[in-house]
């Protein structure tokens, strides 16, 4: 067994309203990029992640990107969906109550949404990591601010591509010791080695187009999935 695994911790299928990929497309892209694990973190739904995990249980971690009243949280090893629109602390507590691993998603990217300072202080005891590099973050200094905040508070830093298109998968990933469970991931995060490159602007245009195609019924969701949610690209 390798002593390090390359993990994509932030990705979306078309179960997100701004996503293009079918679960099979995401699995195929992850394997082609040499990823050992990939967390599928659709917006406020587990349908795409569950469909992807059914195709590749050795590869896929069921996750969720939860929109709160301020910013967004990433949950990994999620068993039950957490609805959008909750206060951040309640959302984090719901994730933790089911044993999920919890991280801040692009926490200082105010061009999307961001947490207030007092909210970050409330969340601190419930966090396992901070996304210190998000490949889709456009606001100057936002990724650096996330890394600095994480370092100041003794939290591991991870990278995420925030992939909505197959081309993006693995563009930002994190090297970790091998893990199989939520508790093992928490331990592995202590040795996280984030890496990645910014995504070009055209991927955001692709997400906006996906929103329109979803609206027009041109992008089908995985069988049995519910209506997706995604206020942001």
What would you note in describing this structure?
The protein has helices spanning 23-32, 47-55, 88-97, 117-123, 142-152, 182-188, 202-215, and strands at 5-11, 37-40, 60-67, 72-76, 101-105, 129-134, 157-160, 172-176, 193-196. It has a 9-stranded mixed beta sheet. By secondary structure, it is of the alpha/beta class. The protein contains 7 helices and 9 strands, in the order E-H-E-H-E-E-H-E-H-E-H-E-E-H-E-H. The protein has one domain: TIM Barrel. The protein is globular, with a radius of gyration of 16 Å. 29% of the residues lie in helices and 21% in strands.
Keywords:
9 strands, nine-stranded mixed β-sheet, 7 helices, alpha/beta, 233 residues, single chain, 29% helix, TIM Barrel, disordered C terminus
Could you give the topology of this structure?
Elements: E1 5-11, H1 23-32, E2 37-40, H2 47-55, E3 60-67, E4 72-76, H3 88-97, E5 101-105, H4 117-123, E6 129-134, H5 142-152, E7 157-160, E8 172-176, H6 182-188, E9 193-196, H7 202-215
Parallel strand pairs: 1-2, 2-3, 5-6, 6-7
Antiparallel strand pairs: 1-8, 3-4, 4-5, 8-9
Kindly report the average pLDDT value: 90
CATH homologous superfamily identity: Metal-dependent hydrolases
Total beta-strand segments: 9
Number of domains: 1
As for the CATH topology, it is: TIM Barrel
